[in-house]
Write a structure and sequence with these properties.
The longest helix has 49 residues. The termini are far apart. The mean pLDDT is 87. By secondary structure, the chain is an alpha+beta fold. β12 and β13 form a beta hairpin. The protein contains 5 helices and 13 strands.
């Protein structure tokens, strides 16, 4: 358990995201292709119905500063979701990092995508070193108390979920590699398919109706919907045109018949 902390400094002396580094410090490498594509899919299909887009932060490889007593300490989750935050619609005000003591809200869910070198720490199998920052597991479970923690190993197609129960994470019993989050009326599961022209097994959000659509799928749905509406309108136009032609033909036939009756000395109106 994280304890024996020094007292907090006065709020006015706390660093903001403008004071803290937003790049990787002392770490090598940027996210690989898989990390980027998987993060995009998670963000595109994350559509909670009980929160607006202005109240949700979906972050990928954004520094997460978590301890005001040690303001230089941070973690950099592969992907995370924060609910109930206020997002800016101005480019100049976009976050450089996520600073918990400024925002006042911890993430709701964190996703870590395992790499061979990160598995022990991501799964809580490493101990904190003396005079070193706590591990990811300790930060997520004991300091920030993040309700849900997800780990996906694409090399083994192994998807694991953990839910905070009291003070400890408990493994979630997954059915068909899926689990439901009642708070946001969505679930997270493994989906086999092609995304960004890449076939594979991906983490993806779903709701009661099925897998939630990507931007491309939504655009294709709208295109098909518009095409269907166009075809329906064309059908109605042709139907109306056909009915108009039938009415004209009937009127013409009636006029011809009336003329023939008159030629026989019979007034059409007198024929019942």
């Amino acid at each position: 358990m994280y304890q024996n902390n020094p007292p907090l400094p006065p709020a006015e002396n706390m660093p903001t995201m403008y004071d803290l580094p937003s790049e990787l410090i002392g770490e090598s490498g940027l996210p690989d292709e898989f990390h980027c594509i998987q993060a995009d899919l998670l963000s595109e299909t994350c559509q909670p119905i009980n929160y607006s887009s202005e109240e949700i932060l979906l972050a990928s490889d954004l520094n997460l500063y978590y301890d005001p007593r040690h303001p230089s300490w941070y973690k950099r989750p592969d992907w995370y979701m924060v609910l109930g935050v206020i997002n800016s619609n101005q480019q100049k005000n976009l976050r450089l990092s996520y600073v918990v003591w400024q925002e006042g809200i911890a993430p709701f869910l964190v996703v870590e995508l395992l790499s061979p070198g990160t598995e022990p720490e991501d799964l809580g199998r490493t101990l904190r070193e003396v005079n070193k920052p706590p591990t990811k597991w300790q930060v997520y479970e004991q300091i920030l108390r993040i309700p849900y923690y997800v780990v996906y190993d694409r090399y083994e197609n192994n998807f694991r979920g953990f839910k905070l129960n009291g003070t400890r994470y408990e493994s979630i019993n997954l059915s068909e590699n899926r689990f439901w989050l009642e708070e946001i009326e969505m679930g997270l599961g493994l989906w086999q398919g092609s995304y960004q022209n890449t076939e594979g097994l991906w983490l993806r959000w779903y709701n009661a109706d099925g897998w939630l659509p990507t931007l491309t799928e939504r655009a294709e749905f709208e295109r098909k919907k518009a095409e269907s509406e166009r075809q329906r309108a064309e059908f109605e136009r042709k139907k109306a045109e056909s009915e108009r032609q039938r009415a004209e033909e009937a009127e013409t036939k009636a006029a011809i018949l009336a003329q023939k009756l008159r030629e026989l000395g019979i007034e059409p109106d007198s024929v019942s």
